[in-house]
Design goal:
Length: about 350
């Protein structure tokens, strides 16, 4: 049975000029021959991702979304650069092929990479694919271990020393995401002021060992081997990657992690199968990471709360585009509900925290 992630027809208003794209790709990627076919991967709420078939080659094109965008978001050049640096040392990273900022091609910067074909898990498992509790636990272990492998890379040795600003990273993240939320707030959005103040008052020192961080590491950004779905073969969507605090990266992942004993409304907005029998809890993820890194497990209420807040900002920025008519994608309509539920979960975390 076929479980691999499948593209569909390109959404209205997000079409590409096939003649121009075909000429550009054949001029810049050796060995391409044959006609061009373009489809779009339907999932994801940020950068647009297309599957391009030319002859027997399958390529993936990434470009920014249409409409209003956050000032520092959707930097195709950064995404391409980190793929170039990581691909030789981190085998889960797609191989980048070409990048351009020439506006005559598409009107925006974009890049093309090799496709990593496999299974991508979303809220509901593909029909016919099941995991036993033991298998689910093993998959969670592998997910965490690959994340830790990324954090263990010597970023200076691969030429990424100037890729981010590790000093003061945590403080900048709290302040920066707070500014972004206030800028993207719509009249129907939650306030989040209590959460932002709590994070501001409890901001910890930066982790002593900065690392390459993905900043969106979760099940639907990893690719599983079709022949062995417990094995991870790829990590996708590097648009927010930088050099910074690895514990903040783990916290961002925790913000997506819905577990089986969470309130029903929080489980309802989960987009990953992390509440299946055998799946790790957030505490188990933290404990495994802390054991591998040789660090204590204190302060993780802060990192989890930050992860929830950061996710709410991303949700709100996308909803802002829909609210103001800058996108017609109907998936975005209900994101305002998710923003309110994320605030409720963050408040619960604060109320239970000993910090």
């Amino acid at each position: 049975m076929e479980f691999t992630d499948k593209p569909t027809n390109v959404r209205q208003g997000e079409e590409l000029d096939l003649k121009i794209i075909e000429a550009f790709l054949k001029d810049n990627i050796p060995g391409l021959a044959g006609g061009i076919l373009v489809e779009q991967f339907p999932s994801g709420y940020s950068n647009l991702t297309y599957l391009i078939r030319i002859g027997d080659r399958e390529l993936v094109l990434r470009r920014p979304p249409f409409g209003r965008k956050a000032k520092t978001a959707h930097d195709m050049g950064r995404e391409y650069r980190i793929l170039k640096a990581l691909n030789p040392v981190f085998p889960y990273c797609p191989k980048p092929l070409v990048y351009t900022e020439d506006p005559s091609i598409m009107g925006c910067p974009f890049y093309v990479m090799e496709r990593i074909k496999g299974i991508i898990l979303r809220k509901t498992l593909p029909k016919g694919l099941d995991f036993s509790p033991d298998q689910m636990r093993s998959l969670c272990e592998n997910l965490l271990d690959v994340h830790y492998k990324l954090h263990s890379i010597d970023y200076k040795a691969i030429g990424l020393e100037g890729f981010g600003k590790p000093e003061g990273y945590v403080k900048r993240q709290v302040e920066g995401w707070s500014e972004r939320y206030r800028a993207a707030r719509t009249p129907d959005a939650p306030q989040f002021e209590t959460v932002m103040q709590w994070l501001h008052d409890r901001t910890p020192m930066d982790f002593h060992q900065p690392a390459v961080i993905h900043n969106d590491y979760k099940f639907d950004n990893v690719v599983l081997d079709p022949d062995n779905p417990l094995r991870i073969v790829g990590v996708l969507d590097w648009e927010m990657a930088t050099v910074g605090d690895p514990l903040m990266d783990l916290g961002s992942s925790l913000g997506y992690w819905v577990q089986s004993d969470d309130p029903p409304n929080f489980q309802a907005i989960g987009m990953q199968p992390t509440n299946l029998p055998g799946a790790f809890t957030r505490d188990e993820l933290v404990n495994r990471y802390a054991e591998k890194a040789g660090i204590p497990t204190t302060n993780f209420d802060f990192y989890f709360c930050f992860g929830l807040f950061r996710l709410a900002v991303i949700v709100q920025q996308i909803y802002y585009r829909f609210y103001h008519g800058q996108t017609k994608d109907e998936r975005f309509k209900m994101l305002i509900v998710a923003a309110h539920i994320l605030e409720e979960q963050a408040i619960r975390t604060i109320e239970r925290s000993a910090l």
